[in-house]
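Section 5.1 Outputs to date
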Amino acid sequence: MNLNSVAEFFGEINWFRLAIAVLLLLVFTVFNKWTSTRLFRLMKRFFGMKWDNLYLTVRNPIRALMILLGVSGAVRFYFDGGGEWVLFSHLIRTAFIACIGWGLYNLSGRSSRFFAGFSTKWGVEESDMIIPFLSKVLRFLVIALTLTIIAAEWGYSINGLVAGLGLGSLAVALAAQDTLSNLIAGVIIVTEKPFSKGDWIKTDTVEGMVEDISFRSSKIRTFADSVVIIPNNILAKAAITNWSRMGKRRITFDLGVAIDTDQKKLATAVERLREYIENHQEVDKDMIMVRVKGMTNDQITIFFYFFTYTTIWVEHMRVLELINFEILNILEEEGIKLAMPAQRLFVEKNMNMEMDKDAEKERIYAGSKLYE
């Protein structure tokens, strides 16, 4: 390359266009961070604090888009549109599609503002499985859609791929019916919330604390400290008692006192027991029953029925213990004894006569032996 060729090359350069193109490139690349920050501050003034989270989510995709804008604008301005650069146009459009897909991918993350609003509106906690599941589904759709659009940009037909995916999905659905039923049941459990993690539940087959809820099954830790894994489709069909959602906790039992108890003492004791429970600070006042329920051959039954404010098992047992001690104290002060198990034996008359005859025979026989 001689000096004339170099001079000819520099002579063909449009320095004015080159300067403008370089300026565009600098604005959109070197000053990328500065310009994007100023842009989002301006948007924040108009739309409020919610743009902070949005900015953190799509910051990097936006910066990449601005760099692409700078490169594309600089090249197109210098070459007066660059209409003949087909490959360059395809590459720029592909990069634009990828950046938009990148931003949508970030927005569909489980910690994004979209799912934060979803959690607030529907009362679904971020730790629940529904949020990670929806996030993964949306991200998969974003990736599939982005790749599909890029393939179409380069002239590839996607009709065969879509048809193949449809047939494949049908085959998978038929082969995994149980898994799909468990998955749907898991979604129902999470959305309807018959129970949550940490709840104490009881079914026909198991009772314990809910340790985990997944799409296929739920883990129940029993009070024997073993873990029972139940498929969600079985659990969704079962009758479930959720003890953790009690507003108050019931106490009911029968107490037997001696059948020969004096009536006046019994009436006084029952009245004192009822008054004590009604005035107890840890007993709910809506429903309290202390009544003589009935009598049998060996006891008089006093019926107790009331609720404690606390639903915590340990505290509930503490209240019950205090009440039991006071019941014993009141019965002792009134001179009333608890019923003792008793049995009565009935001997037939004929059997007694036979026993008397045998005894008489033995007496006579013993006397005859004495005189021999």
